[in-house]
Specification:
By secondary structure, the protein is of the alpha/beta class. The chain has ten helices and 28 strands. It has helices spanning 16-28, 53-56, 61-64, 129-141, 152-164, 186-198, 245-249, 294-308, 375-383, 390-393, and strands at residues 5-6, 9-12, 34-37, 74-76, 81-85, 90-93, 98-100, 103-106, 110-112, 124-125, 144-148, 169-173, 201-204, 209-214, 219-223, 228-231, 233-236, 240-242, 254-255, 257-259, 271-273, 278-282, 287-289, 320-325, 328-334, 341-348, 352-359, 362-369. Helix 1 (16-28) packs parallel to helix 8 (294-308).
Length: 398
């Protein structure tokens, strides 16, 4: 006989958002039953170290376990939810097992984007703890690595492999003109190209991968300019697509994410969404955004948990995100898009400074490049309506 489950609070997703929500629920409701359904094999863990501290030795595997079991919940791991039955307030997984709920949180995150028309097995679309374990083993064994993508994951993984194994031969391949070109000013992006090359990483810009073929050992990667490259291992960091299918099929409102109100409720008041998958209106920016970073996952999860217990707290947090690229590091808030008008205020050109991203004179985002402990100043500045001129911003954050 198939076993079914009943919970007061049910969370779909096994990441940092889910952990934060469970902890928040438990602080308010010590006895309400909590169930968590996750498609990962592992219980919730901190994700940023997968491309940062685990490679530098600053953290070990045991450090990233979030110890979600402390919240006295029941975890159903390696399970995939296939349907939300809103009428009967039940969730159904791929085995047909049913989970009833009073309040439901969708924290399903996203799925890594894959290369079109490339079906070869063994390409690592980097995102999970199992991806880290797999890549770590391959880095120990192999020498040549092709990293596809020049954004957050691609730039971090290329640096991580080289730091961990200095004699590794690492090649980055991506279609943009430079590392981080979609968010950084052109001079900074070009500077990063040269910086990575100085670290003995081959940087191939304005290149599209057209095919990948599995060899007896390794892979043959072909590009649009007819380059043929052999690698022992291929890693791709091409961004994610939010996991909205079950929400969409349940007639919840979706766009580029699951649409939520200020309380993180969907158009069904008993169903909440948070983390990478949630699309919400940010009052500081006066626009709808979806944020794929740790700070947002934690803060959204916490508030969603509170509101699942009956609180009515508004989510107005402007999330921080950050990255480490060898000796460089940055923190940022808001929207970073190199198509916006950018005002650069360098303390030391391309080494230390602040970049402001503006639209119609209003600040959309702020990049703190090797500038630390200024996030709150940046958040406060973004709330100001402006309009700002470049002269207004020079020296504004010191």
């Amino acid at each position: 006989m198939m076993e079914n489950y009943s919970y007061k609070y049910l969370i779909i997703g096994g990441g940092m958002t889910a952990d934060a929500a469970a902890r928040s629920i438990r602080e308010i409701d010590p006895n309400g039953t909590i169930g968590l359904i996750g498609d990962d094999n592992d219980p919730p863990y901190a994700r940023p170290p997968l491309s940062k501290a685990l490679w530098t030795g600053d953290e070990a595997l045991e450090d990233i376990d979030l110890e979600t079991s402390e919240t006295n919940l029941t975890m159903h791991l390696s399970r995939t939810v296939t349907k939300i039955d809103r009428h009967n307030k039940k969730v159904i997984d791929e085995k047909g097992i049913k989970y009833s709920y009073e309040k439901l949180l969708i924290a399903t995150g996203g799925t890594p984007k894959k290369l079109p028309k490339v079906e070869e097995e063994g390409i690592i679309y980097y995102r999970t703890l199992s991806d880290y374990k797999n890549l770590k083993k391959l880095v120990d064994q192999n020498k040549t690595f092709g990293v596809l993508g020049g954004g957050f994951i691609g730039s971090e993984i290329a640096a991580a492999i080289k730091i961990f194994k200095p004699d590794a031969e690492v090649t980055m391949i991506f279609p943009e003109t430079g590392i981080g070109a979609l968010i950084f000013p052109k001079k900074l992006s070009n500077h990063l190209n040269k910086y990575y090359q100085e670290k003995n990483i081959t940087v191939m810009v304005e290149e599209l991968v057209t095919s990948i073929k599995k060899l007896d050992k390794g892979y043959l990667v072909e590009t649009i300019s007819d380059k043929k490259l052999k690698f022992d291992t291929v890693i791709a960091g091409l961004g994610i697509t939010p996991n909205i299918k079950i929400a969409e099929e349940a007639n919840l409102e979706v766009k580029n994410g699951i649409l939520v109100n200020q309380y993180l409720q969907t158009n069904d008041p008993d169903i909440f969404a948070a983390g990478d998958v949630a699309l919400y209106h940010n009052p500081s920016l006066d626009t709808y955004i979806r944020v794929e970073h740790e700070d947002n996952a934690l803060m959204m999860g916490e508030l969603a948990g509170q509101n699942m217990t009956g609180k009515k707290n508004s989510f107005d947090h402007l999330s921080l995100f950050y990255s480490d690229l060898f000796d460089y590091g940055y923190e940022a808030v808001g929207i970073l898009n190199s198509n916006l008008y950018m005002v650069e205020d360098w303390i030391d050109p391309l080494e230390e400074g602040i970049v402001y991203y503006l639209k119609e004179g209003r600040i959309q985002g702020i990049l703190l490049w090797n500038v630390w402990e200024k996030v709150e100043e940046a958040r406060k500045l973004i709330t100001e309506s402006g309009p700002f001129t470049p002269e207004d911003l020079k020296g504004r954050i010191k």
